[in-house]
Q: What sequence folds into this?
């Protein structure tokens, strides 16, 4: 698979994604039974994952988006820019942050600090992918889809310089 000028190989199939996301939705439904959390999807990358996860969760909830960025092409810049903030009331609420991938932990740490300032009852983090070997900041991920090696991935919402988000599977750089 070629995306722009790079070659990628299939890494996680559409079937594996569907199966794991279904199980994650059931876990979240069970853990938040009797509550009505606010789900915050982190744009742009988490939109496909969030869409499928929402279909697998069967409790009442609200959904909103936040957009942050720390990547340029294939490299983390190490600096986080909050681009779109949260307009819903967070104080006293259960908040579930849904992210496509946590690698360095820098963006997630920044995001959790920003959300904490709004005094939620609790913040849980869901990430489709986690790169434990790439973490530079310790961050607790409550629900992890897949732990992956520290290699660049694209597809299923993840991009390479804006391209590849529409792929139904996840591909790894060759």
A:
């Amino acid at each position: 698979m070629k995306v722009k000028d790079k070659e990628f190989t299939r890494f996680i199939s559409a079937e594996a994604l569907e199966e794991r996301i279904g199980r994650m939705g059931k876990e979240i439904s069970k853990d938040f039974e009797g509550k009505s959390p606010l789900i915050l999807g982190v744009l742009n990358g988490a939109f496909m994952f969030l869409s499928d996860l929402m279909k697998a969760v069967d409790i009442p909830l609200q959904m909103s988006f936040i957009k942050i960025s720390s990547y340029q092409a294939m490299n983390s810049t190490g600096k986080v820019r909050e681009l779109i903030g949260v307009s819903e009331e967070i104080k006293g609420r259960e908040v579930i942050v849904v992210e496509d991938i946590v690698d360095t932990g820098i963006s997630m740490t920044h995001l959790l600090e920003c959300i904490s300032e709004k005094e939620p009852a609790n913040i849980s983090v869901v990430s489709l992918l986690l790169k434990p070997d790439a973490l530079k900041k310790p961050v607790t991920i409550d629900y992890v889809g897949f732990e992956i090696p520290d290699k660049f991935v694209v597809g299923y919402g993840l991009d390479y310089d804006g391209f590849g988000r529409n792929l139904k599977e996840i591909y790894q750089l060759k």
Notes: The chain has a mean pLDDT of 91. DSSP finds three helices and ten strands in the chain.
